[in-house]
Amino acid sequence: MTRTTPVVLLASVALPLAFAANTGSFDVLTFNVAGLPSILSGNDVPGDKETNSRGIGSKFAEYDYDVIHVQEVCTDKTAARASTNTNSLKDFNYHAYIYETDDHPYRTATSGGVPFGSGLNTLSNFNWISYDRIKWDSCYLNDGDCLTPKGFTAMRAQIDEGVYIDFYNLHADAGSESGDVLARQAGIVQLINYIEANSIGNAVVVFGDTNDRYTNAEVPVSMLTTQLGFKDTWVELIKGGVTPISGAPADPCGKPAASNQCEIVDKVLYRGSRAISLSASGWNYETSKFLQPDGNILSDHNPITVDFSWSRSNTIRLSDLSGGPHGNWFNDLDSIPSSSSGTNKPSKISFRGANRLDSVSLTLTSGTTYTHGGTGGSLVELTLEASEYWTQAKLCRGQKNDHTRNFYILATTSSGRTLSSGTSTGDCSSFAAPDGWQIVGFQGRDGDELDLLGFIYAPQ
User: Fold this and answer.
1) d(Cα 378, Cα 355) in Å, to the nearest integer?
2) Cα 228 to Cα 393: distance, rounded to the nearest angstrom
3) Which of 14, 177, 356, 363 sits in a 20 to 30 Å window from 32, CA-based?
4) Cβ-contact 92, 83 below 8 angstroms
5) pLDDT of 316-350, one tens digit each?
């Protein structure tokens, strides 16, 4: 299979996909690739790390997992050979050797080697519209945890038209001393706070190296299930929904794992959203697929794959997004009344704008108002009739201070009336609610203006 391989593509415009499906599937892989420099960790893996990294990359290409999260992809000062991928960064590392033999179309650029890089990267068959690296606020100087900026990454990937899933990749503090447990707990709290602020209303999959097991005396990772309602795919599909008891005897895994029943620190957790249902249907340790030619392991971790299915809601849906990856995330999805209540219909549309689009606002018949953006520009408003619905929109983009923003909006109602604000450009996208549906809310990113904007649809 031959593909072009650009590194880090962030979508800055809304591009309608050729085929929008109501259901679909994808698979994920999480793999700690044992890529710390040999002087810090030999990992008890036979062979040299350059060759093993190339072997891992070739397996990624062969099995073509849709979203791959890797941990411990760091620089080795002895790894001074250039990658064949001319888009790689100029530091030469195990990251480059993996990418040399992989062919996924979308891959993140390394954040650097020890002590600068987190060792977290993603290879994907899906493009993404935003990507952020976040360092843990706390670490404990044990097992080399403070030698690299461990943390997590946050990526919003587009699976289909109007179907976005937030993928988080993490590498938690290692070790079993009390300081390790406290640092690991602080990291999970930091991750939870970030998800609550940035993934509101979104489907989410969290996977990576948690350095935690449910049988541990302290189990910080369990807060993802108890506080955010995430499902652990191993517990759900392999353990029949029964979480191992904290403090119970552990069932250690070998490498390769003898069966899926034993527990490791690498985990995959998820939740759906009001607009997108997610379900996990397959789970497996894949170490037998990631072996050296002589049968030895390529890493000291067992890689995990999980198969997911998704489907759109019949009562509320999302549009594509238009703009750039800046500003603060917002999403009205969780607070919009259900269609059956009859209170989700907008009664008034309000925009503010001048040279650019400053803000958008909707007032529902329930009296609830959603407003996003700043306070600049001039205000324009349109009051809707009882049988009139907002059904179409047009957004135009432009650049300000090297950031892509929305410069213009045009709203069209079911009666053919219009409301516009801002300044039109030559880079525009059109949006239309499905037949019999209406626009009832917003999603995107904002600051003083509208950096990224999309719409929420519901039946009339």
Assistant:
1) 10
2) 34
3) 177
4) yes
5) 999 999 999 999 999 999 999 988 888 999 999 99
